Amino acid sequence: MRTLIHYSILILLSIGLLHGQWGCAHMPKLPSEEMRAQFGTIGIVSASSDPKIQFHPEFAKGRLSGVYRGTGIGAGAGALYGLCLLTPACNAPGYIPPPGSCRGNACLGILIAYGTGATIGAIVGGVVGGIKGAIYAVPKEEGQRIEATAQNAFDGIIIQKAMAASVFKNSSESPNYVFVLLEGEDFINSAPYNFNLLRERGINTLLELNVKGAGFKEGRGENPLIAFFMKVHTRLIRTMDGKEIYSREFEYKSPRYYSVDWLDDDARLLREEINNCFNELPRQIVEELFGRRSL
């Protein structure tokens, strides 16, 4: 039983680690040619909020958090196996109790067996899961150091404005449209936008860029193998009626390196990756929303 619980916990922990990745699998359709034909002059605006710069490890940040999470997952897995392994019905393949066969003390005995199996399984599974969780978790001090390094690397960079400027710079790759960078305009600092004034400026479509977050993700244990990431949510808004006509989230993700490599030499590797992100992510946004340069 203990071996089965051990393997079930490993399976459930693996499912938990992959859960976030599954959520990113769906890719929305690109704007249709009919929609693109109506874009007209496109105004680019950035969000006014500051994005969160954080570290999101695979399992947990801090050994204690890893123990709590692992214990919960392990207890659930152990209870399920214990529920089955200590009951006669589960130990007899193909056995299905006939209707009305459970009466009086027999039913009570079955309930006690189920309860005992679940309790023992939960205890054993919780212990094993807690140990695994502590191993998988990134130590608290290491997690704080990784997060602080990411935050320091963005010092002096106004992230939202930098992203908008980079997208505008890359807009030359889509010569079928006229792009206007609207940074610094009082009437479009933040939503809700003044669409009357935007139309007066000749803006037909508003491209809103909102950097939702950046930092590091993935990795477990000491010296975790982690990747730099940045997420940008984009919205296309028609100024004629203020209707959102398209939205999509773009994400940049670097190759993975060990944390000691990211932090070495005053985080040189991270600063290079941030520069690469501000080149590649805007290029992808322009190319996929508005199409490539016509040949």
Mean pLDDT score = 76
Q: Would you tell me the structural class of the helices and strands? A: alpha/beta
Q: What is the number of strand segments? A: 6
CATH architecture annotation of the largest domain: 3-Layer(aba) Sandwich
* Number of helical regions: 9
CATH class of the largest domain: Alpha Beta
Q: Ranges with pLDDT <50 over ≥5 residues?
A: 17-25
Write the CATH fold name of the largest domain: Rossmann fold
Question: What would the keywords be for this entry?
Answer:
6 strands; single chain; six-stranded mixed beta sheet; 2 domains; globular; Rossmann fold; 295 residues; alpha/beta
What is the strand and helix layout of this fold?
Elements: H1 2-22, H2 33-36, E1 41-46, E2 52-56, H3 63-85, H4 88-91, H5 105-136, H6 140-153, H7 159-170, E3 178-181, H8 195-200, E4 205-217, E5 225-238, E6 243-258, H9 259-290
Parallel strand pairs: 1-3, 1-4, 2-4
Antiparallel strand pairs: 4-5, 5-6
